[in-house]
Specification:
Largest sheet: 5 strands, parallel
Number of helices: 6
Order of helices and strands: EHEEEHEHEHEHEEH
Strand content: 15-25%
Shape: elongated
CATH class of the largest domain: Alpha Beta
Structural class: alpha/beta
Number of domains: 2
Helix content: 25-40%
CATH topology of the largest domain: Alpha/beta knot
Oligomer: single chain
Radius of gyration: 21 Å
Length: about 230
């Protein structure tokens, strides 16, 4: 799998993409992640990639030309399954979406910045817009990193115990069950006896029941997509 991230601030992506599961997946050659600086595609001598909006306003907008050139160069080298734009008015990222994206071969993620990108890019080149939540960030770099992390951890081989991903929150529209580790008793707080029983079918049943109970109590709208 290949993920190309277009950004005006590549430095913001260095840490999130170079540690933990994402780094191990990259080291194993399970995924190729390229962070591409949009300033490399501008003809402006100051490497500017933003300008004032038509119609006035104090905000700045990402210019069409550098973004267009970067995307067209990548598209000339390979076919892309999705060209994603990180946007607060996009589809809400969820586990089903991450599962689907993890099965693709090539993805571009355009990290929004300033007041956004020239809308013609969204109209003519972007195939999908994704939001990570109803709040405003300084830019799309962190959402791009979150989307990438959610995708990469699902690639077979990225997690040493692949079955652990089956118990992640939001798989099957359920929250994850409680988890415990040693010691079995701490300050009189005990681990549920069923988890110490060694009875795998009964443990699985307990975990599923706990997932259903926690989902109903904590996220009652989850199954309806809220």
């Amino acid at each position: 799998m290949r993920i190309d991230i277009l950004t005006v601030l590549p430095e913001l992506l260095e840490s999130p993409l170079n540690y933990s599961i994402v780094k191990r997946a990259r080291d194993k050659k399970l995924v190729e992640i390229n962070v591409i600086n949009l300033r490399d595609f501008t003809t402006d001598k100051y490497k500017s990639v933003d300008d004032y909006p038509f119609g006035g306003g104090a905000v700045m907008v990402m210019m069409i030309e550098p973004v267009y050139k970067a995307i067209e160069k990548l598209k000339s080298e390979r076919e892309y399954d999705e060209i994603i734009y990180t946007s607060p008015d996009g589809e809400r990222l969820n586990q089903k979406m991450a599962n689907k994206l993890s099965m693709m071969n090539n993805i571009i993620i355009l990290a929004g910045h300033y007041k956004g990108v020239d809308h013609r890019i969204r109209e003519h080149l972007i195939t999908r817009e994704i939001s990570i939540g109803d709040y405003v960030l300084s830019g799309g770099e962190l959402p791009a990193a979150i989307i990438t992390d959610a995708i990469v951890r699902l690639i077979p081989g990225a997690i040493s115990d692949e079955q652990s991903a089956l118990y992640d929150s939001f798989q099957d529209d359920l929250l994850a069950p409680p988890v415990y580790t040693r010691p079995s008793t701490f300050k009189s707080w005990k681990v549920p006896d069923i988890l110490l029983s060694g009875n795998t079918p009964e443990i699985d049943k307990w975990r599923h029941e706990q997932s259903e109970e926690r989902t109903k109590r904590l996220r009652p709208g989850l199954n309806s997509g809220d």
